[in-house]
Design brief:
The complex is a heterodimer of chains A (323) and B (256).
Chain A: H1 2-7, H2 13-29, H3 32-55, H4 64-81, H5 86-107, H6 113-133, H7 135-138, H8 157-180, H9 182-192, H10 194-199, H11 204-230, H12 240-253, H13 260-275, H14 281-296, H15 300-311
Chain B: E1 4-13, E2 16-26, E3 31-35, H1 42-49, E4 57-62, E5 65-66, H2 72-78, E6 80-82, H3 95-102, H4 104-107, H5 111-116, H6 119-138, H7 154-167, E7 172-176, H8 184-199, E8 203-207, H9 211-217, E9 220-225, E10 228-233, H10 235-240, H11 242-249
Parallel strand pairs in B: 3-8, 3-9, 6-7, 7-8
Antiparallel strand pairs in B: 1-2, 1-4, 4-5, 9-10
Classes of the chains: A mainly alpha (323), B alpha/beta (256).
Chain lengths: 323, 256
């Protein structure tokens, strides 16, 4: 952490403290509706950031919402059928999702880009069918109700807000450390030039398994939190649209820098919620924003910030020949 | 014991015969050349020994070990590292970041230690980083170390490609046309760099079309055409060889 303060020259410390303070005060100031929206934003941030891990290695998956759902269902089923405490259900949710992710990558290790995309879409469909049809376990299309809260006795929106906020901060810190690590640099390199990465000794499949598993782990944790917060889950809680949205947050925010998906998730969740007032127009508005980003800023908002920084930079470098 | 020993390598792509019964061996400390007309199968041979392709028949031995069926990242760990004919770099990363990533093998980190910042891991990372800085200096890339790889001029990009391979601490460095598209001055620089690499005890297998380079630095040369070996020997022997001249040296690609 001192590293990032050094890098940005301490400029970001004050804005972050201010934003942190506002977020901490929010539930006490605003209406419960806004508190609920922000809980969704926190969960979406985790989904976007965890999706980024596999995305940067060059594999575009269509089933991240499935890991979210697996986490939610696993945690719920353990809590209700076996009466296990939340902590265990929460961990199990993440771990089961991570194991599924590892299997997915291992099974598709020979698949090239678009084939992986389709296979992951197949996985989404298969799991959706499982959730729908295995009525004894998952409640089928009616879902599961009366899910025990995260901390019993502390089940209001405000308590849940702080719990989920705390988890989001923890998740962001862990993912920041990951990004700064050698592993973080290497997964980006795999996305840049896979054959070159192999040549210098990077085991592509192993890295992708790790990236997808860690991403699914956090998605599973988020799913567990979601289930125990809402108190009710069903297959309709995890529509295909969510996985499309997750992908779009990474595209819009950009993945070249760590914070890209955060911006994408916050911005687009706000647009979705604001757009509910627009009725049918909100889908068109969302699509328009997405198209504008793809055409004008192919590297997302991250890319835009970078190119603005370059343009306004006064530094001119002269290339000196070494010979 | 030979460093590299390729025995009767044959590679078919469907009905296309790319390599046929090719034998090639190298001793430690050598600079060996592999030449032949375009399409002769030189890059295909590199792909076979580095594990990108599995040969249809034949075996590859590296330091006595059979590496024929190993994947590319495993052959790299064993010490066989190759570069690419078309410039392959991590384009959107800076030169420093390119070399940092390339230090994957010498840094020997594991993920948990990496994240937690364990002291042993930090120490190994520090050593790997020092290694990286030495390579940047030796390659003359210090001045552009912060620049993005895709913004470098062509000559620098070729040098960076070689620097990336060096960062992986190879025992055998396989260079695929390192001086393509370079002018005389850049070629001289590259030749000096290759000599420095040899002095560090790294053996080199070189694919090249520029005869000045091949004849100037190679200890031994193998010539192939249509996937088969047509000659092998010291540079002066090759220059006088009838079959080679007929197949290849008739067209001079030299720039003075």
């Amino acid at each position: 952490m001192p590293n990032f303060i050094k890098k940005t020259g301490g400029k970001l410390v004050i804005p972050i403290v201010i934003i942190g303070g506002l977020l901490l005060a929010l539930p006490l100031l605003g209406r419960a509706y806004y508190t609920h929206i922000f809980i969704l934003i926190f969960l979406n941030i985790i989904l976007a950031m965890s999706y980024r891990l596999l995305y940067v290695t060059g594999l575009v998956s269509f089933c991240h919402v499935t890991f979210y759902a697996i986490g939610a269902y696993t945690s719920t089923i353990l809590a209700i059928k076996l009466g296990l405490p939340f902590g265990i259900c929460f961990l199990a949710g993440g771990i089961v999702a991570a194991i599924c992710a590892a299997f997915l990558i291992l099974a598709t290790s020979r698949a090239r880009g678009s084939y992986f995309f389709l296979i992951s879409f197949g996985f989404l469909g298969v799991m959706n069918t499982v959730f729908m049809q295995w009525r004894n376990l998952t409640g089928g299309s009616s879902g599961i109700t009366n899910i025990p809260p995260i901390i019993s006795g502390f089940d209001t929106v405000i308590y849940n807000y702080y719990i989920i906020f705390a988890f989001t901060i923890l998740a962001l810190i862990i993912m920041y450390l990951l990004d700064r690590s050698r592993f973080g640099a290497e997964i980006v390199a795999i996305g840049e030039a896979e054959d070159l990465a192999s040549t210098i000794g990077i085991n592509i499949v192993r890295h992708r398994v790790m990236a997808c598993a860690i991403g699914a782990l956090f998605a599973g944790f988020a799913g567990s939190l979601f289930a125990h917060y809402e108190g009710f889950i069903a297959p309709t809680s995890f529509p295909m649209w969510t996985t499309i949205y997750i992908l779009s947050w990474c595209v819009i925010g950009g993945v070249r820098k760590y914070w890209g998906p955060i911006v994408g998730a916050v911005l687009m969740t706000a647009i979705i919620e604001y757009g509910r007032m627009m009725g049918e127009w909100h889908a068109i508005f969302y699509a328009a924003v997405l198209l504008a980003v793809i055409m004008a800023m192919p590297n997302g908002i991250v890319g835009l910030v970078d190119s603005l920084r370059v343009r306004f930079s006064k530094r001119l470098t002269r290339v000196k020949k070494p010979y | 014991m030979e460093l590299l020993k390729a025995v009767k390598i044959t590679k078919y792509f469907g009905g296309l015969e790319a390599l046929k019964d090719l034998d090639l061996s190298m001793e430690s400390g050598e600079i060996a050349g592999l030449i032949g007309p375009n399409g002769a199968g030189k890059s295909t041979f590199f792909n076979v020994i580095s594990g990108v392709y599995k040969p249809t028949s034949g075996r590859v031995f590296f330091q006595g070990e059979d590496i024929t069926d190993m994947k590319t990242h495993t052959t790299a760990e064993k010490g066989l590292v190759r570069t690419f004919q078309a410039t392959r770099l991590f384009s959107d990363l800076s030169v420093n970041d390119n070399i940092y990533v390339a230090c994957h093998i010498p840094s020997k980190t594991n993920l948990i230690g990496d994240i937690l910042g364990l002291p042993l891991i930090k120490h190994r990372e520090g050593e790997a980083w020092q290694n990286a800085m030495d390579i940047v200096k030796m390659s003359g890339l210090e001045a552009v170390s912060q620049d993005l790889a895709r913004n470098l001029p062509h000559g620098y990009q070729r040098v960076l490609g070689m620097a990336i391979a060096l960062a992986a601490k190879p025992k055998l460095l396989c260079l695929d046309e390192p001086v393509t598209g370079m002018n005389g001055e850049e070629i001289r620089f590259m030749m000096g760099l290759i000599e420095k690499v040899r002095q560090q005890g790294i053996s080199i297998l070189l694919i090249e079309h520029t005869m000045k380079v091949v004849m100037g630095i190679c200890d031994r040369i193998t010539v192939i055409n249509f996937g088969r070996k047509i000659a092998e020997g010291k540079p002066d022997e090759i220059q006088g060889n009838e079959a080679v001249i007929e197949a290849y040296l008739g067209r001079s690609e030299d720039a003075p």
